[in-house]
Amino acid sequence: MIRLVAFLSCFGLICAEAPFNHNVHNQRVIGGHDAEPNTWKWQVSFQRVTSHDENSFYHICGGTILDGFHIMTAAHCVNSMDASQYRVVVGEYDLFENDGSEEFLRVNKIIVHPSWTGNVARGNDIAILRLADPIYDNGFVSLADLPALDETMPHGFQCHITGWGLMDMDGSVPAILQVAAINVVEHSVCSQPDWWGSIADTMVCAGGDGIISGCQGDSGGPLNCFTDGAWRVHGIVSYGPYNCNMKNKPTVFTKVSSFMDWIYTVLLEFRP
After folding, report:
1. Marked catalytic residue, from 45, 219, 257, 258
2. pLDDT band at residue 29, thresholds of 50, 70 and 90?
3. Residue 98: phi, psi to the nearest 5?
4. What is the CATH number of the domain that holds 90?
5. Which of 9, 67, 125, 213 is catalytic?
6. What is the pLDDT of residues 95-132, one digit of tens each?
7. Same domain, 59 and 86
8. Is 261 a catalytic residue?
9. Do 224 and 161 touch, CB atoms closer than 8 A?
């Protein structure tokens, strides 16, 4: 099935409109550092139009390129089902500068998981954005590799979180994409009373050392883990404590491997 999706994803990586706007107002991965340019090429910036200017957008969440027409993000990032309110920027690095690597793409349709209730603690915090125009393979974008169905990372396995979320609780924001190594916390530990307590089986925890975590603005972005010879997106940033990097309160991610069947179903429904 992985190979089938890789084949289907080739459709659409052929052309894209010229950028129609680069005005962005952002709202870091805490404990992170500037990512190397042109590395996490499946990372995207999911943006919403400002209330006062239909040609100006601000970063709200991260996301992951699934194929030439689809982006994966968190369901809680979608506050309106009006697709015209959003755009996706792929090939992004510096949110406040035009690096010449970006593609600015309109969202045509939003598909939220049918079991999403609006409560992140109950899980199913996943959505797929269908683009109006295809992503062009300009050398700065790449499709994400995904895990096997129900694959689980062992306790202590080191992954990496990426995003443009807050760097601290003073509201410091990064221009450059941030990255930080973060260790997986197995479900039996994360669900203990002195950790998060009840955690859905379809979620995965990482962090909890009080130093490194995701934060506001990282939601929807990927948890990247190197397995089977490739970086694979094993998680989607879902929630964490209000102050982000709290001891024994790790960042909680939607476990991508639990939703592989649904992801494939959505992708296969659309044939360009």
Report:
1. 219
2. confident
3. -90, 105
4. 2.40.10.10
5. 125
6. 999 989 999 999 999 999 999 999 999 999 999 999 99
7. yes
8. no
9. yes
For the question of residue 125 being annotated catalytic, the response is yes
Is the alpha carbon torsion for 218, 222, 227, 229 positive or negative?
Answer: negative
Count helices and strands (H / E) in the chain.
3, 13
In a domain, 33, yes or no: no
pLDDT of 171 reads: 65
12 and 49, same domain (yes or no): yes
On the CB side of 30, CA atoms within 13 Å amount to 26
> Is 164 a member of any domain?
yes
Decide if 101 is catalytic.
no
Same domain, 124 and 177: no
Q: Is residue 153 part of a domain?
A: no
Range of the domain at 87: 2-26+41-144+260-269
| Identity at 43, one-letter amino acid code | Q
Residue 152 domain flag: no
> SS3 of 63, please?
strand
Same domain? 182 vs 105: no
Residue 205 is predicted with a pLDDT of 97
- Could you give the number of structural domains in the chain? 2
Q: What pLDDT sits at residue 271?
A: 72
Of the given ranges (55-64, 161-170, 222-231, 243-252), which has the lowest mean pLDDT? Answer: 161-170
> Of 59, 70, 76, 234, which is the active-site residue?
76
Q: Which residues contact 213 (CB under 8 A, 6 or more apart)?
A: 29, 30, 31, 182, 207, 240, 244, 245, 246, 250, 251
Residue burial 159-186, b: 16+ Cβ < 10 Å; e: rest:
bbbbbbbbbeeeeebbebbbbbebbbbe
Q: pLDDT tens for residues 33-82?
A: 999 999 999 999 999 998 777 778 999 999 999 999 999 999 999 999 99
